[in-house]
Write a structure and sequence with these properties.
Methane Monooxygenase Hydroxylase, Chain G, domain 1; magnesium; CorA_TM1_TM2; Beta Polymerase, domain 2; MgTranspt_CorA/ZnTranspt_ZntB; 7 strands; single chain; 7-stranded mixed β-sheet; about 325 residues
Length: about 325
Amino acid sequence: MIRAMGITHDHKVETGIPLESIGDSKYGWSWVDFNEASAEEAEQLDHFFHFHPLAIEDCLHVLQRPKVDYYEGYEFLVLHALDPETLNTEEVNLFIGDKVLVSFHHRRLKEIDDVWNSLAGRAQNRKAWARGPFVAAYMVIDALVDQYFPCVYAVEDELDELEKQGSRESVEVLMNQVFDLRSRLLKLRRTIVPMRDLMYRILNSQHIQGEKEPRAYFADIHDHLLKLAEMIETDREMTADLRDSYISLNSNRMNGIMKTLTVITTVFMPLTLIAGIYGMNFAYMPELEWRYGYFAVLGLMGLLSIWMIFAFLKRGWFK
């Protein structure tokens, strides 16, 4: 689907205009949105707008890294939106010209719809339209970045809950939860860090040198991305600490189990020796014919076990 809106010179918004009216002199600037475009609709990027073939190729082939390319008369941005449920990324492409903004994405996105509806409702807002297509581009980028915050906050809430329930769950369950959180944080990091680098590159680009207002807008988004990146790194460090703590706790538990088994084995070793000796089928052995030999051997075994247990207690092996 292709939808278009035009902003007239007296700052009125007209939506649902045909694509052929984009260059009409009545409009100060326009926004064209390619939403789940078909192959025929995607061809308009070349036939109608005459964008660079490399930029069009980046639109049609997804999983591009966030970037900005400067072409004659317009800038091309590759951005990433986040699915809050799966944390998978969705590519959003923006062509920012002097009089037109073109957005291209393969899946319907709530962020784009919200910005579209917001702009459509701002009739005669001269301050909002002062920067032309840049306003809509900034609002799209800002909406995409704002969507990152709930995703990061959700992981932080799970991390806090994991710390609280640490004493009630088994180590195996806790370790699985920690590794799941680290996997989700890695997904977030793969999206947010490249977007942060993109904003840094735009801020230090000569294309907006000397223009304080655009720089302030991009600096605000860059600050948000810096905060998100720091939150992710902090959370990754916390999960690493939790992982190490759980591994140490599991090792201590294993050491305790091994200590108990060792003590039991040590106690029964001399008893097994005595039983093994008297289990041999020799005809002439001491005490075989003694009336109280059986009870004497059992008593010796009992006394020996008690003596060894007290010796282990004195050495602190059961602490």
